[in-house]
Give the backbone structure.
Amino acid sequence: MPSAKIYYDSDADLSLLQDKQIVFLGFGNQGAAQAQNLRDSGISNDKILIANREDSYAEDAKSKGFIVEHDFGKAAAVTDVLFVLIPDQVQPRVFNEEFAPKLKPTATIVIASGYNVFFKLLSFDPKQDVVMVAPRMIGSSVRSLYQKGKGFPCFVSVEQDGSGSGLPIALALSRAIGATKAGAIASSAREETAMDLLAEQALWPNIIMLFREAFSVLKEAGCSDEALCYEMWMSKEPAEIFERAAEEGFITQLKHHSTVSQFGQLSGALALDGVSSRAHFKDILYNQILNGKFSQNFSKLEAGLELDGPENPLNQLYLKAEETELAQAEKRVRQRLAELL
């Protein structure tokens, strides 16, 4: 498979955004960061509109000097470029019911997650451009790196090229938020969704499970809660390892460890054939993610996710997870620490 194309500042023309009314649906972590970066890149403040219900996020937008519109229909009617930056589970309802009917046929819709586009949960006019500009960092980092004059990793794609000029617009927007300074990687909603959901539904669940089971085995061997919590994660050593991996390389970072650690990790990893794990990952990818099974089941939960208390299905999962030996031990350790302070 050929290497992905990477786009830089020199590939993007900011003048394409001149006089366009840019609307941000949502002013959360990504919305706040990208709107501010856009403004600092020279987009006039009166050409940026924040569409947000009346809540703390709207107040935050106003405090930062942005114009806020609570009536989504009014916001949609003036939109030339729409950044859809509200949670995945509410996008279909809000976009399809309140924005799509009043958007211009020539509007450009910008997504930061491929989920709803890949699963065809959003309704677009065939003349509209639908592009993905997807930073691979949390919003606070998107903002702080921009302020430092640095870029950040970002995926970019054209999912529907209604105007025939979707890519130039996507690149201009990528540059305006600061992504092309480091390089925006050509991708797709399918690729972004597959990687994102596989990490969330297979990779990280397995990591959580491995920590949970290792904790139990060591507890049975006589290790204390305090020693285990600090040794395994509260020391922040795992975070430091991943930071080194990002900076130097997944394998190269091992050279910062002791010789005993290097030998143990490398010999142990190479001894594991990974066949069962690979089969598990492929099963999740093809039989749960790409075939739409997870998306269909998750869509049924939308109303429940808006509830407070134990009726919320996400809260039910948290309550179940909090019953595990690892979680209970950590609770005891943190309570003890709080009592000492």
About this structure: The first helix runs from residue 29 to 40. The chain has a mean pLDDT of 95. The longest strand covers residues 154-161.
